[in-house]
Amino acid sequence: MSKEARQNGIGAMVGRTVLVTGGTGGIGKATALSLAAMGARVAITGHDTQRLEAAAQDIRAACHAEVDTFLADLSSQAEVRCLADEVQRALPRVDVLINNAGGFWNTRRVTADGLEHTFALNHLAPFLLTSLLLERLKASPSARVVTVASNAQALGRIDFDDLQGERAYSGARAYNQSKLANVLFTYELARRVRTTSITANVLHPGVVNTSFGATDPSGVQRWLVPLMRPFMKSPAQGAATSIHLASAPELDRVTAGFFANSKARSSSPRSYDGTTAERLWRESSRLVGQGSSI
């Protein structure tokens, strides 16, 4: 392999299988595209058939790569379970799981499971999917779980008395809580799998120019986002840290880290509270009906 190819990461992921949730657009699609270009077998999930197939075709055309697709609404626990079953039937191995899917909703919505939508999609979905794929990940000699959070985690607080926002709902508060939950989940996962081949890291992608939150924006988003667009990262730039965490050889045994701009950073003081992390793990296990023995 030439020096230029090595610098561009070409071939760095040959033999590795990567599952990217929310891979039909934005950061997720850019992540899958880049990893496919590096030689990975890539699988993407999405909840819209046409967008899912279009994204897969784009990646195949650009990289001449094998791309698997899985249709699932990750806000539904039944669909997360079906997804995990389909992945294990279709993919002989899973070396990297990138929990990328997420969203923001200004008004409170309830899922098929009776849970607040933001918490269900942003936190419980990656919690459940990771748990269900854990044995497949353990079979890899060097597995990685990468979860996309946000610097909004610094504003978050886990309100165990009102996790579902039933007493008082704020789109921003629900989102911030879910992103802090991503970080707490990652640190607790890293602790629980520390004797295995799995590493777990979490990241802030930056402020990225995508359709994020467009279906139900807050009033502030409506006027602020258009003003900020010229200064936002492109999806490819926003995907850079996810790609780094999924592929960088020097991170092979690095775990329980929070990254931004492909560099390790400190997350919020609340994110290092082990008692809160354990309690959130137990409560999440209860809400998804999954054992907490990991």
Polypeptide structure, described:
This protein is α/β, with parallel strands linked by helices and about 290 residues long. It has one domain: NAD(P)-binding Rossmann-like Domain (Rossmann fold, 3-Layer(aba) Sandwich), CATH 3.40.50.720. Helix content is about 45%, strand content about 15%. The protein is built from ten helices and eight strands. An eight-stranded mixed sheet has the order 3-2-1-4-5-6-7-8, with helices on both faces. Strand 1, helix 2 and strand 2 form a beta-alpha-beta unit. The chain is globular, with a radius of gyration of 18 Å. The N terminus is likely disordered.
Which structural class do you get from the secondary structure elements?
Answer: alpha/beta
Helix content: 40-55%
CATH level-3 fold name = Rossmann fold
CATH superfamily: NAD(P)-binding Rossmann-like Domain
Instruction: Please state roughly what percent of the residues sit in beta strands, choosing from under 5%, 5-15%, 15-25%, 25-35%, 35-45% or over 45%.
Output: 5-15%
The description of the largest β-sheet is:
8 strands, mixed
Please compute the radius of gyration using only Cα atoms. Answer: 18 Å
Low-confidence stretches: 1-8
Shape: globular
What is the correct CATH architecture?
3-Layer(aba) Sandwich
Major sheet: arrangement of strands: 3-2-1-4-5-6-7-8
SSE order and pairing:
Layout: H1 3-7, E1 17-20, H2 26-37, E2 41-46, H3 49-63, E3 67-71, H4 77-90, E4 96-99, H5 117-132, H6 134-138, E5 143-148, H7 171-192, E6 198-204, H8 219-228, H9 235-247, E7 257-260, E8 263-265, H10 274-288
Parallel strand pairs: 1-2, 1-4, 2-3, 4-5, 5-6, 6-7
Antiparallel strand pairs: 7-8
Helix pairs in contact: 2-3, 2-9, 4-5, 5-7, 7-10
